[in-house]
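Colleagues,

Please find the record for the two-part complex below.
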Amino acid sequence: MEHSTPSSQPTVIEKVIAFVDERVGLKQMQAKMLNEPVPGGSRWAYVFGSVLLFIFIMQAVTGILLMFYYVPTADHAYASTQYIIHDVDYGWFLLSYHFWGSTAMVVCVFAHMSQVFLWGAYKPPREMIWLVGLALFGIVMGFGFTGYLLPWDQRAYWATTVGVEIMDKTPIVGDFMARFLKGGPTPGQMTLSRFFVIHVMILPAALMGLAGLHLFLFRAAGPAGPFRGTAEEIKAKTDFFFPRQIWKDIVGMAVVFASICALAFWEPVVLLEEATPDPGDYHPEPEWYFLFLFQLLRLKIFAGEFGQFLGAIALPGAFMALLAALPFIDRDPERNIFKRPVALIGWIVVMVSILLFTMSAIINREFLD
Amino acid sequence: MSDERDSLSPTKIGLGVLWPAFWTALPIKLAFALVFLAMDMMHFEGRLGLGFLMFLASPVTVFATPIITMGLESHIGEGAGIALLFLLCIPIDIWALGVVGRTYFLEKFRKEPPDGLGVTLWWKCAVVGAVFLPLLWFIVGTVTSMSISMAHSVFEMELFKGIPVAERISAELSLWGGVSVTVLIVLLLIGVSLIGRMIRSTSETARPVADSYQHVVTRWDLMRVPDDQGLMLTALTLGGVVLSMLFWAGLPVTTPHPHECCKKPEVKAEPPFKPLEALNKDEKLIAQLEGQIDALEKQKAEAEKDKDKGKGKKAASAPEAPAPKKP
């Protein structure tokens, strides 16, 4: 005769888990998610994808909280943003976190793309992951561009004006896109409404869909693993996603969270004067991650109608097209970056150029002031 | 494999230990930094990036930072939190260097890590940093200022007068930036190589490992698993809760940088209302006012009396008014 002890009885939580598991296969799903083998073991270099997901979730949370107070109309946007900063409890911190979170997202996208490029992780069979990643990069840039207008101060107004003017130079679709975004001859209520809808509805939906697809494709192809080391070494170090990679991801998220908070304390969002069609003493310029392009367009070689088209549309467009075609052009299976000199030199040149022109733009700003 | 171990350059060894040790310690240091920032104990002004680098590299900057601050009159920021944070960094760095150093000894040197490796590596790194970093700071600073003025004077020459502003800025920046970055990288590599040599000298006295590679991997894996995981998790959770509470308690509710348009007027708090005191005060005031009214009424009555008396006297002494003429 069997006697069941109280400890052998399942608890309520265990019963609920068993109930859900029976219906949706929870344990199988959990095992599939956590027991993914990571070739060569966990690495700090692999944290950027998870960190990006974390930043996006935090941006969504802070964005929703800000929307409780923000009014997307030309006559109330500025005042409601000032109200968030000056009257709402911890509103200044929420807004500053959201602002610096967007910067962190751009930095992490750059870091993630660089890691994939240097590790040669775009090569077959991971071409589709790379292409979806490029689309996600475009969405992140779109978030930055559309969100910048919402406070409706001089900086926001003129950065958008400059950005839309650059977009206008695109052949065939440029004029339509610029008119669609502005909704009139000068930025006004229609512009604000459209940017707001794109920022809070269209882009988040697109990002969620594409991020899901990105993750699905990543799971289907599996992690690429290190580009160096013997087969014996890689096999000996191979580990599951849980717990070591998850621990590294959590540490990465904590570092990014703390860094964004520190930036929010160091440089909290302070608005300029309310947007007007007269720039006054203000020198219009875009957000820092577009500064290199802005400075590039100041060079004499890019002066005039054709020069502006070349610098603002043709060059960045060609660069993005090259990135998209990369997995199909580069068919060499070698992944070690130190054995791919063209890729290594190309990456260094691009990074140094971006850094150089961004710093030049900052010096140029001081010169203009 | 043995040849590869012997051929490890000092720079590779230095980087192999310092780089992961910096990042291993950073999350804990950042948590404290965040609390100090929220409590307004640290100010970095325009030097947040430099401050971040100093804290990231605290095993080598712990003694070098005060030397640079005092000796070279250059500081990363203000506030008691900075000194406190550097003090807190010491045990954290000893732990991080110990974890990373033991792994490195097993994986790369295939040697048994000696006892107290974390402390040994920490004080050696700190001493090398204290001597080398102020030197690096001085040399890079001097080279940068010299190359800026040289680049500027080159573009002041008649030959380059026609160059537009944007091109000139980028060209000048490339010139002086290239020089100072090259000097900085060379000096950093020399510094890392010094630390690499020091780590190698520490490893020379250690016993070699006899285990297979698979066993070595398992050993360094297990080294990172705490003996009492429950205790570790509880301690971490409690620490996190305390730091979170300190963070929210210290965080200002409204912006510390108000805009010109929205500065709040200084409001003085009204004293609390005490009904009995107010009633007594009002009664006194009413009594006082009553007295004043009585005095005024008396004064008025006396004045009227005087007026009437005056009128009577006048009427008695004045000649009779002539009777109106009849038409």
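The CA atoms of residues 238 and 270 of chain B lie 42 Å apart.

Comments are welcome before we finalize the supplementary table.
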